[in-house]
Amino acid sequence: MDAAIGDERGTTERVLTLLGLLQQRRVWTGPELADRLGVTPRTVRRDVERLRTLGYRVHAGQGVGGGYQLGPGQDLPPLLLDDEEAIATAVSLLAGAGGAVAGAGDAALRALTKLDRVLPARLRHEVRALSDSVEFFGGGRTPVDPEVLMTLAGACRDEVEAGFDYPSGSEVRRRRVEPYRLVASDRRWYLLAYDLDRDDWRSFRVDRMTDVAARTWRFRPRAAPDAAAYVQESVASRVYPHQARFLVHAPADTVRAQVPASAAVVRPRGSGRCEVLSGAGSLDFVLLHVLLLGHDFEVIDPPELGRRCRALAERLLAAGAGPSVRDAEQP
């Protein structure tokens, strides 16, 4: 009897693992699932039938491009949530994905895309109606359409191309991309993607996108940069006409606590020092920001910034010397 119980527990765990895999990606082939689960394709077929018995609509396609796909349910699969709980959960996740809950945006978006996969159509209308009646105030991220976030997150997960209109100077142009990751800063959502027309990696602000759509054309993932690091460096320096690097005589953790992540990249450089990379519309502006941190620092580049340091020092010394003699003699 103990062996039978153990076999049943093993089957249950495997079926739940299968369900998790089907929620992570749009389409899996039978051999792919068999390899991930460590079983035969025949066992995968039996486990798929078990999920269908539980109320999950698992579609099976034949031929090239076919495979197993988890479809939206006519009813919520038994187990988990009734209609009211599903609506409350979805609305809460929408708020979290929008930045209303500090630190919850990424996790809320992942959970929302999973819930959206099985949410019946009748409940989606109720969720949209409720979410439209919710407003937020104060700080947080720039508001974005949660459906746009879900579309992009799904395209990243399913490895399919995406398209959207995006401002470029005074024009709005259509962009075709291979989406890789959504990245949330303290202020905004960004998409790291490979721009097919420019043949290079780019970061895009989600709140500037319009007419966002995922295509059916799948792509082979490329070797990608670290998403969070790439987007942070883009936001903090590459978007500005002037970039500067400093060696600051303070621990990296201390400086990170003083500077928003969207304003500078801070990298440790040995004991008690760090490198600060930032950008601005003028070199004087970025120089003053580093000066006001209150730590000793050195200019790494550009060379022009060293000259700006000396010019600023002379102006500060002159200002600190008080009024000139001629000014003092004037009535």
What does it look like?
It comes from Planomonospora venezuelensis. Pfam families: HTH_11, WCX, WYL. By secondary structure, the chain is an alpha+beta fold. It folds into four domains: 69 residues, Winged helix-like DNA-binding domain superfamily/Winged helix DNA-binding domain (Arc Repressor Mutant, subunit A, Orthogonal Bundle), CATH 1.10.10; 50 residues, no CATH class; 83 residues, SH3 type barrels (Roll); 80 residues, Alpha-Beta Plaits (2-Layer Sandwich), CATH 3.30.70. The chain is 44% helix and 23% strand. The chain is built from twelve helices and eleven strands. The chain is elongated. The termini are far apart.
List keywords for this structure.
elongated, SH3 type barrels, alpha+beta, Arc Repressor Mutant, subunit A, disordered N terminus, 5-stranded antiparallel beta sheet, 12 helices, 331 residues, 11 strands
Radius of gyration: 27 Å
Binned, the helix content reads 40-55%
The domain count comes to 4
**Strand content range:** 15-25%
Count of separate DSSP helical elements: 12
Low-confidence stretches: 1-6, 133-139
Query: What's the CATH class of the largest domain, please?
Result: Mainly Beta
CATH architecture of the largest domain: Roll
Helix-strand makeup class: alpha+beta
Number of strands: 11
Largest sheet: 5 strands, antiparallel
Name the helix and strand elements from N-terminus to C-terminus, one letter apiece. Answer: HHHEEHHHHEEEEEHEHEEHEHH
Shape: elongated
CATH topology of the largest domain: SH3 type barrels
State mean pLDDT (0 to 100 scale).
79
Domain HTH deoR-type: 11-64
Protein name: Putative DNA-binding transcriptional regulator YafY
InterPro entries: CBASS_pafABC_assoc_protein, DeoR_HTH, HTH_11, PafC-like, Tscrpt_reg_HTH_DeoR_CS, WCX_dom, WH-like_DNA-bd_sf, WH_DNA-bd_sf
Keywords: DNA-binding, Transcription, Transcription regulation
